[in-house]
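Example 9 (inverse folding). The structure is encoded as follows.
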């Protein structure tokens, strides 16, 4: 199952497995070499569990967490979902953003939280360090990414900037 997930995950360079294939997978030997690295992967202290964020935060009150919850869509610059398709925000609906904020305020350990930049997020996490990373976001741009031809033409109007925040508790 891990092999199949690795293949599917790396096969697609677009949102929700709807993109295009990496050239590594057209070369049988390169793909087999990548699979061998997975076969030999050993992390004896790695523990993978499947729980809700509520259960995890309660079970590990002092641990460091990296959290990447679904976007807050109401009053957001990110007016539509990304996964599995841009206009199908099913995985964003119904997420308990208020509960997450409340629990993280009480969490004793450090965390890094990536979130979309919107009024709710800024208000909910105003007591934490908030960073506004500046980077170009290319996942949804597909074939209109910045390339040599666009650079030569001086065509840079299509570049989409990130609207995400990093919220940090040290």
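The amino acid assigned to each position is listed next.
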């Amino acid at each position: 199952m891990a092999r199949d997930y690795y293949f599917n995950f790396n096969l697609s360079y677009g949102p929700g497995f709807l993109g295009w294939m990496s050239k590594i997978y057209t070369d049988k030997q390169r793909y087999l070499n990548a699979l061998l690295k997975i076969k030999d992967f050993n992390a004896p202290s790695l523990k993978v569990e499947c729980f809700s964020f509520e259960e995890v935060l309660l079970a590990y009150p002092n641990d460091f967490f990296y959290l990447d919850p679904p976007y807050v869509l109401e009053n957001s610059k990110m007016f539509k979902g990304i996964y599995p398709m841009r206009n199908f925000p099913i995985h964003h609906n119904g997420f308990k953003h208020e509960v997450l904020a409340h629990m993280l305020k009480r969490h004793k350990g450090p965390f890094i939280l990536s979130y979309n930049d919107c009024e709710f997020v800024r208000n909910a996490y105003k007591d934490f360090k908030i960073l506004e990373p500046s980077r170009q976001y290319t996942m949804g741009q597909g074939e209109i990414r910045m390339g040599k031809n666009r650079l030569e033409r001086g065509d840079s109007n299509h570049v989409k900037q990130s609207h995400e925040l990093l919220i940090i508790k040290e």
